[in-house]
Amino acid sequence: MRLDLDRLTAKRQFINDNLAFLRELAAMDEVVFVNDRRSFYAAVHALQISIEAMLDIFAHIVARLHLGIPRNDRETLEALRDKSEISQERFERYFEMSKFRNKVVHGYIDVNAPRVYQILQNELGDFDLFFADVKHIIEQEQARKANDG
């Protein structure tokens, strides 16, 4: 198999561990969260590194399946979409996640606690969609390998 399943599994577990922590933070009252800088910064960092791990997984898939030579996260996601590995809707969700990560890294002054709390409340499920997409891609690759070999 062209995909490094151990690497993918380790990164998916890393994201899952972060999601457990993020869900704990999501259980906080909004006023408490917004006024607790430690919780806010912890959530921002956990989101940032989880999204980065997601993008790393996608980059690995694109490279190993020879889907193109993207120069950035957008092109990585476009390659997956263009080869029907993810849908247009998922492309848009993952690209929004990528933009948030970039805002954290480069425009951190614009990241605010109410927006992060909103992400915790309403958008963590996007990682579940990501897990489902990766599982589907792996299953397709395994089926291709079985048919070729």
The CATH topology is: Four Helix Bundle (Hemerythrin (Met), subunit A)
**H-E string:** HHHHHHH
Overall structural domain count: 1
Which class best fits the helix and strand makeup?
A: mainly alpha
Sheet of most strands: none
Count every helix, treating DSSP H or I runs of 4 or more residues as helices: 7
The CATH architecture: Up-down Bundle
**How many beta-strand elements?**
0
**Which band does the percent of strand residues land in?**
under 5%
Measure the end-to-end span: 11 Å
Corresponding CATH superfamily: bsu32300-like
Radius of gyration: 16 Å
> How helix-rich are the residues, as a percent range?
over 70%
What does this structure look like?
With 149 residues, the chain is an all-alpha fold. It has seven helices and no strands. It has one domain: bsu32300-like (Four Helix Bundle (Hemerythrin (Met), subunit A)), CATH 1.20.120. The longest helix is centred in the middle third of the chain and has 28 residues, at 37-64. It is elongated, with a radius of gyration of 16 Å.
Provide a short characterization of the protein structure.
With 149 residues, the chain is mainly alpha-helical. It is built from seven helices and no strands. The model has no long low-confidence stretch (mean pLDDT 96).
